[in-house]
Design brief:
By secondary structure, the protein is mostly helical. It has two domains: 2-240, no CATH class; 246-400, no CATH class. The protein is built from 19 helices and six strands. Strands 2, 3, 4 and 6 form a four-stranded mixed sheet that branches. The chain has a two-stranded parallel sheet with strand order 1-5. Strand 3 and strand 4 (326-331) form a beta hairpin. Helix 1 (2-16) packs parallel to helix 7, helix 2 packs across helix 8 (133-153) and helix 14 packs across helix 18. It comes from Nicotiana tabacum (Common tobacco). This is Protein root UVB sensitive 2, chloroplastic isoform X1. Keywords: Membrane, Signal, Transmembrane, Transmembrane helix.
């Protein structure tokens, strides 16, 4: 479907640039736009790989926190490529500000796929402003470049969750084969549509008295959004149905909350539909409202660092309980088991504090003792359910060395 969506925008790009679809001109335009700005987007997005390991589902369909900064960089780069008059520059900046705002909002709902489809949409709309062809089309390809990296980088952790017999290469090959098959089908459908229906701008635009009427009746503006909606919805359902067996902050909190509340442990397959793909960093009250990943200097002052470390001197985590949440910082070599231990201490402490009739200064120690009494059977059952506890994927979360 992504290949299908790329056929019609290419015709729009050629028309907006004032070019006729000769092989040499098409090659030049493709190189400038795709190999130029798209590669810039790929390079910038590649710096966010650690976050993709932590939240592969979200980065496949949800949330790009650093899109706005990257897009601002792209805007500056694009403006430097072309001299603009003052009034054109003002109009361009206003237009790009609206686009960036939309990208930031949509990024919370679909990073890889919405960004790709939005980049395609900018290409389709490029005939509306042919004098800003380089800026609009370049920004579209920049967004598509980031989307391609996010989609490809998250395939491996998602495929890994299905590799029960160590057959990751076989799964990856079959997944790529299915993707290639549908890309070929989409390519054929796109070529058929472009050659029979959209062979000229007259075929795309129904004649009207005003330009806006022509745009509203454009076949592309009907087909492309519809295909984009189907595309994003399909990927959302695919990610919701995908079980991931590694521990990240959200899944760890959900596991601990369920165990503290009911004494049960869900498998990755049972937990998959409960994951929040929009706001995975939300705090879970039954898990102690734990927030992980903040910098050490934001959590504890240097004068109190040794005091916090001595509270659980044998552990590889620090806990600082506040009025709204509990901060947890892990040592640089902490594993998933260490994160589980810290999370359970915070959850038990929060539960004890809620049930206590009067404040107690020993709640943290009592919670720690309770965690130790149940952790061994808890860990054994957790591993039997298929969870990998040898590592904890907290993205770019800060860790400490003591």
């Amino acid at each position: 479907m992504m290949v299908f969506l790329s056929i019609s925008p290419l015709q729009s790009l050629l028309f907006a640039a004032g070019l006729r679809p000769t092989p040499a001109q098409a090659t030049a335009v493709s190189w400038i736009l795709k190999d130029g700005m798209q590669h810039v987007g790929k390079l910038i997005c590649s710096n966010l790989g650690a976050r993709m390991d932590s939240e592969p589902k979200r980065w496949r369909i949800l949330g790009l926190h650093d899109v706005h900064g990257a897009l601002c960089y792209a805007v500056i780069l694009l403006i430097s490529l072309k001299e603009l008059l003052l009034h054109e520059l003002i109009l361009l900046l206003a237009f790009l500000c609206h686009i960036i705002k939309i990208l930031i909002i949509l990024a919370f709902y679909a990073a890889a796929d919405v960004l790709y489809d939005l980049g395609t949409g900018l290409e389709v709309m490029s005939p509306l402003c042919p004098h800003l062809f380089l800026e609009v089309a370049g920004l579209g390809n920049f967004a598509k470049g980031m989307a391609v990296v996010a989609a490809r980088a998250t395939r491996l952790p998602i495929y890994s969750s299905f590799a029960k017999e160590g057959n990751l290469s076989d799964l990856f090959a079959k997944g790529e084969a299915i993707s290639t098959l549908f890309n070929v089908l989409g390519l054929g459908a796109g070529i058929h549509l472009a050659s029979n229906i959209c062979s000229s701008m007259q075929g795309k635009l129904i004649r009207g008295s005003f330009p806006i009427l022509k745009i509203l009746n454009t076949l592309q503006l009907v087909v492309a959004p519809l295909l984009s909606i189907i595309h994003v919805y399909s990927v959302c359902e695919e990610m919701r149905a995908t079980p991931v067996n590694t521990l990240n902050p959200q899944r760890t909190a959900m596991i601990v909350a369920e165990f503290v509340k009911t004494g049960k442990i869900s498998s990755p397959a049972d937990l998959r539909y409960q994951e929040d793909l929009v706001f995975p960093e939300r705090l879970i009250e039954d898990a102690g409202n734990v927030k992980v990943g903040r910098s050490l200097h934001e959590v504890v002052s240097p004068s109190k660092l040794r005091q916090f470390k001595e509270t659980f001197h044998e552990e590889k985590f620090l806990l600082n309980r506040g009025s709204r949440w509990t901060d947890m910082i892990l040592e640089h070599d902490a594993t998933g088991e260490d994160a589980l231990r810290g999370w359970m201490v915070a959850a038990y402490a929060s539960d004890m504090e809620r049930l206590a009739r009067e404040p107690s200064t020993n709640i943290s120690q009592e919670a720690y003792e309770k965690m130790n009494s149940v952790f061994s059977p808890f860990l054994a059952e957790l591993q039997a359910k298929g969870w990998h506890t040898d590592r904890f994927l907290d993205g770019t979360g800060s860790r400490f060395v003591f």
